[in-house]
Amino acid sequence: MELLSDCPVHASVPDKYVLPPEKRPSLLNDEPSSDVAIPVIDLHSADDCRRQLVAAEIIKASKGFGIFQVVNHGVAEDVVQGFREAAAGFFAMPAEDKLPYRSDDLSKHFRVSSSTPYDRNGDRYWLDYLKINCHPVTDEHVREWPDKPGSFRSSLAEYSTAVHELAQTLLRLIAEGLGLDGGFFAGDLSGGSTQMNVNYYPPCPDPSLTLGLLPHCDRHLLTVLSQGDVAGLQARHGGRWLLVRPVPGAFVVNLGHQMEIITNGLLASVEHRAVTNTDAVRLSVVTLIMPKMECRIGPAPEMVNEATGPAKFKEFEFSEFIKAYSAAAASREDVLHYFRIHR
Ligand SMILES: O=C(O)CCC(=O)C(=O)O
Ligand SMILES: [Fe+2]
């Protein structure tokens, strides 16, 4: 399949990208009103006396939305920009430089592909994407990362190390906010090989006909996303699609399916999608923190309590979830149905 980033600018949306009417984004600009804006949390001084307050804010946002943004997060601006520029540079290279990395083989540590990783009735989506095993930064991983553009490997190593640290900080704050031991999510629950999606959405001649990325929940524990300054990410809230408004320098944080299951439904994973726009390329850099494949997952005994009720999910090995997620083509209810305890 051809990469969109290798095509000349499209004058209209080719038929193969036109979604059936019921799947098109009916409202492109369902702007949040002030009472339902996705929270922006200042992590500054989460190390001192504000720590408890910040943890409480995170839990409130997680319960209410399953998604929030963080500023003053400690990841240096030049680290973020350095990798965003290298990633944009990769997509801007001539087709022949990208060709060696074209693959749909999931075992690769670096690959580029187009349209969607999930086969939902052959629907096509308006994006190209990189899938990268980005952490830990091992020689085996780095060898498969591209050596062009020249800064790609070093900027990716720097970015993924910094974002990984931020993710651990966030997990610690979530644990503390839930009244769990601060190290609750450390170890196997967050110790799987970290994956990164770099999504590249070219300008689209008619954003009402197609989507950049289909509605889905992330399969992992926690997602840390840099969307730059071009809007497009939307999160499902109260039956509406709320725009996750770009905030300069912020990371978007959203909870994955594993967080929902471990907290017995208290912190629900949020359904989200990406819409396209007519003017600008949009690039999102998405870091997905996940358990080890062999890790046992289920509602934590501490989270099965009066507030959450009896256990809502069965216990399983994380690798089983990954298989079910692919089989359900990332559909939230289809995949959760399989792991729910039906009473
Ligand atoms: O492009 C975005 O903002 C969303 C990306 C996303 O949801 C994903 O890669 O899982
Ligand atoms: Fe996602």
UniProtKB/TrEMBL annotation:
Keyword Oxidoreductase: yes
Source organism superkingdom: Eukaryota
Molecular-function annotations in GO: metal ion binding; oxidoreductase activity
Keyword Iron: yes
Alphabetically ordered keywords of this record: Iron, Metal-binding, Oxidoreductase
InterPro entries: DIOX_N, IPNS-like_FE2OG_OXY, IPNS-like_sf, Oxoglu/Fe-dep_dioxygenase_dom, Plant_2OG-oxidoreductases
Domain Fe2OG dioxygenase stretches: 192-291
Cofactor(s) of this protein: Fe cation
Matches recorded under PROSITE patterns: FE2OG_OXY (PS51471)
Recorded family membership: Belongs to the iron/ascorbate-dependent oxidoreductase family.
Name of the protein in its database record: Fe2OG dioxygenase domain-containing protein
Organism from which the protein derives: Triticum aestivum
